[in-house]
């Protein structure tokens, strides 16, 4: 039974490949046949027009004095006026006679310009000044002495030819559609038995891809689709296990790193206070140790915050506070660093107090992370602009830099855990993910806009805090009671 099922799945794959190949072959054949027919038909029209206008080549036997008079006589006696129009052009590029009567030339005659440059027959296919589809050809006329006398130009309408070619193309397309319809109808019943189960598998796979590792596919058969369902269920279980292992790993490693970090910082401070003979070298080395200790300590805090975020234990201690003060403190931490790196750090914050409800340390962590990224990804001579403004019931904090920017294909993933668009710069790749989670817990928004090699703009939007009306009423009642006493 399983061999039979596998044979059917191979048959389905074979049928699918043959159908695609057949469609491709039909399309290529239809296009090739239509193009060939159009080319041959156009060549036939060109050849007939050239033959009909051939008698005007005898104008080369005239000279500059008799050229125009001879051309007028030939135009009047032309026998194929119902098939093409022939215009005679003087050496100044002006049409002075036509087989349809005296008329002005089209505003553009590209075939004449090319023929004048090449000295050969040049053909133009396109639109006339009246927007009609035409084909035109120009032949230069030279006297027997080699003097340029002018040119004759034949013009014929392509409307009828275009209609005929459209009919032929439509017939070819109709035949192809009939053949493809027969193939589809004969295969649809068999394909249906494969498509429906695949759709169920696809829906569950998308659910798992969004992070719901508890979802499972109900296995209804023991064929290849059943094997696929079992494989996806196994994958979901492995992903769930990997996620748990990763969180446990981050938590344990973070705690293990804290002890040596404390020792590094302690010994660094002790050594700095006990400078030896080479004071400058020791001081510089200890500064590096302290700097690295601070950096690793920040990384540990990021990892711990990420672990708390993953397990839902990232807590906030919310209270009303002045967001302008926190933003200024965060920006002040990077002014000296920006100055050393020749980066212009500009802070534009209103002087008045703006109150939000939130966790001071967590919001400061977000601002530091965003400003740190801006300075980190901005080259010397660049600028970082920190701005705070209010709009309606919200406060909008923007950090704009002129740094390397983020590629378009990475912009949607920069807030994902562990994701780094630029791997040449330091960082764990989780700072922005933690910042985004903190802002969400403050009922706010964090979004990133960026153009590669231009710069990045990170925006944080937080609701402005307003004193509850109930509390204000209670205070009034209390004050009234104290007055009565």
Kindly summarize this structure in a few lines.
This protein has 485 residues and is of the alpha+beta class.
Number of helices: 10
At the fold tier of CATH, the topology name of the largest domain is: Heat Shock Protein 90
Number of β-strand runs: 12
- What portion of the residues fall into strands of 2 or more residues? 15-25%
Question: How far apart, in Å, are the first and last alpha carbons?
Answer: 96 Å
Q: Look at the structure and give the mean pLDDT.
A: 78
Overall number of domains? 4
Detail the poorly predicted runs: 1-8
* Cα Rg: 41 Å
The helix fraction, in percent, is: 40-55%
User: Outline, from the CA principal axes?
Assistant: elongated
State the order of secondary-structure elements, H for helix, E for strand: HHEEHEEEHHHEHEEHEEHEEH
CATH homologous superfamily caption of the largest domain = Histidine kinase-like ATPase, C-terminal domain
Structural class: alpha+beta
Q: Tell me what the CATH architecture of the largest domain is.
A: 2-Layer Sandwich
Q: Strand arrangement, largest sheet?
A: 2-1-5-4-3
The top level CATH class name of the largest domain: Alpha Beta
**Biggest pleated-sheet summary:** 5 strands, antiparallel
């Amino acid at each position: 039974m399983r061999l039979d099922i596998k044979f059917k799945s191979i048959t389905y794959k074979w049928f699918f490949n043959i159908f695609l190949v057949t469609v491709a072959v039909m399309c290529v054949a239809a296009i090739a046949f239509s193009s060939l027919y159009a080319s041959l038909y156009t060549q036939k029209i060109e050849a007939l027009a050239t033959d009909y206008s051939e008698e005007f080549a005898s104008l080369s036997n005239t000279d500059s004095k008799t050229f125009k008079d001879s051309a007028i006589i030939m135009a009047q006696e032309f026998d194929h006026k119902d098939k093409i129009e022939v215009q005679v052009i003087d050496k100044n590029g002006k049409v002075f006679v036509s087989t349809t009567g005296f008329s002005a030339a089209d505003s553009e005659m590209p075939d004449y310009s090319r023929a004048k440059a090449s000295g050969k027959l040049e053909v133009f296919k396109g639109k006339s000044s009246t927007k009609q589809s035409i084909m035109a050809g120009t032949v230069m006329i030279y006297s027997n002495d080699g003097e340029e006398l002018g040119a004759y130009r034949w013009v014929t309408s392509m409307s009828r030819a275009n209609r005929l070619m459209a009919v032929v193309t439509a017939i070819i397309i109709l035949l192809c559609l009939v053949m493809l319809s027969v193939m589809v109808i004969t295969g649809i019943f068999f394909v249906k038995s494969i498509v429906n189960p695949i759709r169920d598998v696809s829906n569950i796979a998308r659910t798992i891809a969004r992070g719901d590792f508890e979802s499972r596919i109900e296995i209804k058969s023991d064929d290849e689709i059943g094997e696929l369902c079992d494989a996806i269920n196994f994958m979901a279980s492995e992903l769930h296990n990997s996620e748990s292992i990763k969180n446990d790993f981050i938590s344990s490693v973070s705690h293990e790193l804290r002890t040596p970090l404390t020792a590094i910082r302690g010994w660094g401070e002790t050594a700095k206070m006990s400078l030896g003979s080479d004071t400058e070298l020791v001081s510089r080395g200890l500064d590096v140790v302290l700097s690295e200790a601070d950096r690793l300590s920040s990384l540990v805090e990021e990892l711990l915050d990420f672990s708390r975020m993953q397990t839902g234990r990232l807590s906030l201690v919310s209270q009303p506070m002045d967001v302008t003060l926190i933003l200024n403190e965060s920006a002040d931490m990077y002014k000296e660093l920006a100055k050393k790196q020749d980066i212009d750090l500009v802070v534009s914050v209103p002087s008045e107090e703006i109150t939000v409800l939130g966790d001071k340390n967590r919001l400061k962590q977000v601002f530091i992370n965003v400003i740190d990224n801006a300075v980190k990804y901005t080259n010397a001579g660049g600028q970082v602009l920190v701005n705070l403004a209010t709009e309606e019931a919200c406060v909008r904090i923007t950090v704009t830099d002129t740094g390397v920017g983020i590629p378009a294909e990475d912009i949607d993933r920069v807030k994902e855990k562990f994701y780094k668009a630029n791997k040449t710069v330091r960082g764990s790749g989780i700072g922005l993910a933690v910042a985004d989670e903190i802002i969400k817990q403050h009922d706010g928004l964090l979004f990133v806009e960026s153009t590669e090699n231009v710069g990045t703009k990170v925006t944080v939007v937080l609701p402005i805090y307003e004193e509850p009306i109930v509390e204000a009423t209670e205070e009034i009642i209390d004050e009234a009671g104290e007055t009565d006493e």
